[in-house]
Amino acid sequence: MAELPGCPGPSSAQAGPAAACQGCPNQGLCASGGPAALDPAVAEIKEKMEIVKHKILVLSGKGGVGKSTFSAHLAHGLAEDETKQVALLDIDICGPSIPKIMGIEGEQVHQSGSGWSPVYVEDNLSVMSVGFLLSGPDDAVIWRGPKKNGMIKQFLRDVDWGEIDYLIVDTPPGTSDEHLSIVQYLNSTHVDGAVIITTPQEVSLQDVRKEISFCHKVKLPIIGVVENMSGFVCPKCKIETQIFPPTTGGAEKMCQNLNISLLGKVPLDPRIGKSCDQGQSFFSEIPESPATLSYRHIIQRIQEYCGLHHTEEKLSN
Amino acid sequence: LSIVPLSFAERSNLAGVQHILLVLSGKGGVGKSTISTELALALQHAGKKVGILDVDLCGPSIPRMLKVQGKGVHQCDSGWVPVFVDQDKSISLMSIGFLLEKPDDAVVWRGPKKNALIKQFISDVTWGELDFLIVDTPPGTSDEHISTVESLRQYMPLGAVLVTTPQAVSIGDVRRELTFCKKTGLRVIGIVENMSGFVCPHCLECTNIFSKGGGEELARHARVPFLGCVPLDPQLAQCLEEGRDFIREFPKSSAFPALAHIAQQILDRTSSQSS
C-alpha cells in the first residue's frame, strides 16, 4: 500500500522505522499499529459467510454515480428467480440510501435468538442497512472509522441472513475504512468480485481508476464496469444529449486501456430517479425503457459470470 | 498571567485569511467540487483572492477542474506552498492530488491517517493573504468532516454551503448533514440545489431529470437560507472536464446567473458582517 512516495504502508513491518517515515505526521500512528492481532470475529464471519454462494460488491470511487440504484435493482433482478435467496447489505454508514430506494424506510430491525433479523422486501429478498437503526430521518451518523468498522463487522456476523444464494454489498464512495473492512472481513471467504459503477466524464473516471487500483491492491476480482447516466434522450424532440460528456472516451476507453470488461451502458431516464424516490423497482414501473433493457442485460452478464465462476471453483476443488 | 499556547504565539498560516467557507453534502456526486470551483472563480472575478483546500483525500477532483493536475507542491520555511492556478496568484489550491506519484494511485487510508493529513493541510499550508478560503469536502459525516471542523473551529469559519440534488434520495443525506452542522456548531450559510432541471439544447424543453424543488423545500423545512438552483448544463460539465473558466466563457448560459447569484449572496453576507 505505497500511497506517498516511499511510504511502506501502515500494514508493513517497516511502518515507522522506514526512511520515508521520518517526518511523516503518521509515523507514530503507523509504528504503534504493529502487526495487528487477528480479530476473532474473522473466524465467525468466515463460518457464517461460507454458506453464501455468491458475494458481489458494488463499488465506485465517485459518489452519486448510481451505486445504490444499481445494487437495489441488481437485487430485484436476481430475486425474480423465486428459487434464489437474495440479500442486500448497505455499508454506506453515513449516507444509507437503500431503505428509501427499496421502499422500506422507517422499518426496524428485530433482535431474535439467532441475531438481528433483516427487513424482507419479498420472501426471497432481505435487506440490512444502518438506516433501520436510526431514530429518524434527521439522525446523522457522525462516526469516525473504528465505529463504522464495528458496525460492518456486526452486519456480517450478527445478522440472521439464513441461507442465501446472492449477497450484494452496496458501498459508500472512496477507498477507505468501509472498503478495507468489508474486504478484510470477507477475505477468508470466497467473493465473486466487484461491479464498478461510473458516469462517462473524466472527473468521475479518474476516481474510478483509483478504485480499480484499490481492487488490484487488495486482490479483489473485477466482474466489470457499468457506465451509468450515459446520454439523455429528450422526451420531446428525441435527440440525445451527453449531459456528462465522455471527453476522454468514457468507460469504454478506460475498460479497453485497463483490460476490464464493460458490462453495459445505462442511459439517463428521469423515471429511474422517480421510482427510486418512491421506493419502487423501475423494472416493473417502466419495463420498456432502454435503461431497463440495458440493466437486464447487465444483470444477465453478472449471473453468467457468477455461474461460470462457481463451476470453475467446483472443478478446481 | 496566562501562558499563550504555542500555536497562537506563532503567526498561524491561516492568520491572513478573512473568511473560511466549507462546502458540504451528505451525498456524493451532487456537485460539491463543481460549486467550490465555480464559487472560487466567481469570487476571483469579483476581485477577491481565493484559496481552495480540497480535503477529499480518496477522490480529489479540483486539480483537474482547474487544470492544474500534475503540478507539484513545494516546501518552504513556513510550510507547504499551495499551487497557484493563474499568473496573478489570485486562486491557490491545495489537494492530495498534488502529492500522488501517479494520478491513478489509490489513497487507501483509514481514518487516523486521513485525520493527520487534514490537520497538516490546515496548519502547514502557506496561504498568505486571502479574502476567502473554500474547503471542499468528501461526502458523508465522518473522519474528514469531524477533523476539518475541529481544526478550523479556532479560526471561526463563516459557515457551510450545503449542496444537494433535488431528488428525495439526496435530500435524505443532506438532512443528516444539517444535523452534523447543528451538532458541531457550524453555521449554515445556505443550501444550493444543483442539477435542477435540464434544458434540451435542441428544443429548449426543460426536463427535471433528478426531480425539482427538493433543495428549496428542505431549506424551508430546516429554516436555513436557500441560495438558488443551478440547472444541469452540459457546457458547465464540459468546462469542468477541460479545466476551463466557465464563469468567463459562458456568461449567457443557463447556469451562469445561478452561480453568480450564489457568489453575490456570500459577498453580501461578508460585507454586512465586516461593516
From TrEMBL, chain A:
Its cofactor is [4Fe-4S] cluster. InterPro entries: Mrp-like_CS, Mrp/NBP35_ATP-bd, NUBP1/Nbp35, P-loop_NTPase, YlxH/NBP35. SUPFAM superfamilies: P-loop containing nucleoside triphosphate hydrolases. [4Fe-4S] cluster 1 binds at residues 7, 21, 24, 30. ATP binds at residues 61-68. Pfam families: ParA. One of its GO terms (biological process) is protein localization to cell cortex. Binds 4 [4Fe-4S] clusters per heterotetramer. Contains two stable clusters in the N-termini of NUBP1 and two labile, bridging clusters between subunits of the NUBP1-NUBP2 heterotetramer. One of its GO terms (molecular function) is ATP-dependent FeS chaperone activity. Keywords: 4Fe-4S, ATP-binding, Cytoplasm, Iron, Iron-sulfur, Metal-binding, Nucleotide-binding. CDD domains: Mrp_NBP35. Its main location: cytoplasm. GO terms for cellular component: centrosome; cytosol; Golgi apparatus; nucleus. Signal peptide: none annotated. Heterotetramer of 2 NUBP1 and 2 NUBP2 chains. Component of the cytosolic iron-sulfur (Fe/S) protein assembly (CIA) machinery. Required for maturation of extramitochondrial Fe-S proteins. The NUBP1-NUBP2 heterotetramer forms a Fe-S scaffold complex, mediating the de novo assembly of an Fe-S cluster and its transfer to target apoproteins. Implicated in the regulation of centrosome duplication. Negatively regulates cilium formation and structure. HAMAP family: Mrp_NBP35, NUBP1. Belongs to the Mrp/NBP35 ATP-binding proteins family. NUBP1/NBP35 subfamily. This is NUBP iron-sulfur cluster assembly factor 1, cytosolic. It comes from Pelodiscus sinensis (Chinese softshell turtle).
From TrEMBL, chain B:
Its cofactor is [4Fe-4S] cluster. It is found in: Cytoplasm, Cytoskeleton, Cilium axoneme; Cytoplasm, Cytoskeleton, Microtubule organizing center, Centrosome, Centriole. Binds 4 [4Fe-4S] clusters per heterotetramer. Contains two stable clusters in the N-termini of NUBP1 and two labile, bridging clusters between subunits of the NUBP1-NUBP2 heterotetramer. [4Fe-4S] cluster binds at residues 200, 203. GO terms for cellular component: axoneme; centriole; cytosol; nucleoplasm; spindle pole centrosome. PROSITE patterns: MRP. HAMAP family: Mrp_NBP35, NUBP2. Component of the cytosolic iron-sulfur (Fe/S) protein assembly (CIA) machinery. Required for maturation of extramitochondrial Fe-S proteins. The NUBP1-NUBP2 heterotetramer forms a Fe-S scaffold complex, mediating the de novo assembly of an Fe-S cluster and its transfer to target apoproteins. Negatively regulates cilium formation and structure. Heterotetramer of 2 NUBP1 and 2 NUBP2 chains. Interacts with KIFC1. Interacts with NUBP1. This is NUBP iron-sulfur cluster assembly factor 2, cytosolic. It comes from Pelodiscus sinensis (Chinese softshell turtle).
